[in-house]
Each structure stands twice: as structure tokens, then as C-alpha cells.
Amino acid sequence: MTTAALDPRAGRRCHNALNTLHSMHYFAPELGEEAGALGITHPKAVNFAVRSAALGAVGPGTVAATFYNYKYEAVARHVPAVWRTAAPEQVLAARARAVDAMLRRLLGAEIIASAELAEAAELALRATEACSRHARPLYAAHADLPVPEEPHMAYFHAATLLREHRGDGHLVALVAAELDGLEALVTHTATGRGFTPKWQLATRGWNQDEWDAACARLRARGLLDDSDELTEEGVALRDRVERETDRLDRAPYEHLGAEGVARLTELGGGFVRTALAAGAFPADLIGKA
């Protein structure tokens, strides 16, 4: 039997659909409500706690290292203090309740109960069988969590595993490219596919002077032009980073196979379109300005 070869960018396309659905919960009102019920009310504290809870009650250094593009001082204002408000286990339970409510709201009862969502969960979980814990702390921590029984929650869990697996590898590529956390943000925004500067500064803890200084460093390297657009060299560098990330993340998608990846991308893309139409993200989130 002949199996189709996996397109080099097929894993990236599949990840984009999975990651988009995963990322929605950071903007969901349900997450703020559940965290607020625990006493965690500051938006940054919610973000740091929810994403790092699988690691345990870690300190700011671990969060800053694994998140990579957040300002350390911004993290340290909330971590480890947030663990005195709520234990990681409580935060994980609150996250699960919020995700459940969010998915039911954004996707609707018909999709939640559909055979397609159950199929997507099965495919995504199968892909995770080939993920590696080695040098992937956020993936490894989430991989230790139990797989939820309900298909929509199992799908979110698998999407999270695949998102963090790729993300951990992406940090290796960024370090090799000699892009620090803020420079990574600036260059991603310059592609037009990242958060706008407004959202980068609001969520990552940097200020405008620091952003401008990062732009100056990138101009000195020939990666940005005088208008802070990517130069030809800058475009090439971002492409190398993404290609190296693809290489480091190829195992789960090779394991799933070309047909499985195509089907998971198709299903995941459909769920994302439904959720976006329901207002999953702020309208001004993505872009260069």
C-alpha cells in the first residue's frame, strides 16, 4: 500500500487551525469569570497562572523562560504571588470549566455533539502519540495531565499538547536565530500575521521605548528597514525560523500521515471559522498597526 508523502508545510497548516482554537480561551470572558472566582483578577495574572499551572507552583524565572516573549519584570509582579491565591490544581480545574463553557458558546450544541468533533479529537490525540517530552517543558507538563472524556474537551487538550510541542521547538529556533523575546515579537508583527503592537505591549509587559529599542537593534542587523518593515534578509530569517520549527515539529504529523493531517486540518479549520464568526477574538488583534 502506498501512502501519500506529507507536504513539508502540512504540519504548520494543521497546527495553525489547532492553535487558533486553543488560543481563543485566553480571550474568553468565561476564563476571567472562573479565575475571578478563585480571586485571580488581573488579566496578566490570569494568563500566567492558566498557562503555567501544569508546571506546578513555579517562579517567575520558569514562566519567563518557557513563555519566552514576556518581560520578566511583568511576570514577577504576579508570579509566584498568584499561587498564594489559588493552587495550580484549582487553576487547571477553573481553566477546564472555562474552556467547556467557551466551546459550547462558540461552536454550538450541534458541533459539540457531532461525529466530526469526535473524529477530530481522535485524530489530534493520535498525532500526540509521536510528540517528545525532551527539552519541551510546557508540552511535557501538559502531557502529564489526564485526557478528558468528552470529545470537545479531549480535542482542546490535544490541541494544547500540539500547540505547546510546536511552541517549545519554536523557542529553540528563535534562540538559534539570535532573536530575543521582544525581537521575536517585533519581527512577527512585521510579517502581518502577529498581534498588533497595541496587543503585544498590553499582553507581554513591554513598553513603547523597549519596543522602539528592539526595532533599532533589528535595523542595525539589517532585518528591518527605516519604516520597520522586514527587509529581504528579515523575511528570509523569519522563513528559516518557521522552517526549522516545522522540522522540529514534524514527528506528530508524520505519525498521523498525510491523509489524517489533511482531514484534521479540514475539520479544525471548520471549527475555527465557526468560532471566529461567533466573535472569538477582538477585531483589532492581528496586523501591523
Please outline the major beta sheet. Answer: none
| Ends distance | 50 Å
Q: Bin the helical content.
A: 55-70%
Task: Indicate the mean pLDDT.
Answer: 97
Number of helices: 16
The topology string of helices and strands comes to HHHHHHHHHHHHHHHH
**Quantity of strands, as a count:** 0
- What general form does the structure show? globular
The multimeric state of the shown protein is: single chain
Give the low-pLDDT segments. none
Structural class by helix and strand composition: mainly alpha
What does the radius of gyration come to? Answer: 19 Å
Strand content: under 5%
Textual characterization of the structure:
It is a single chain. This protein has 289 residues and is mostly helical. Helix content is 69%, strand content 0%. It contains 16 helices and no strands. α11 packs across α13. The protein is globular and about 55 Å long. It starts with 9 loop residues before the first helix and ends in a 12-residue tail after the last helix. The mean pLDDT is 97.
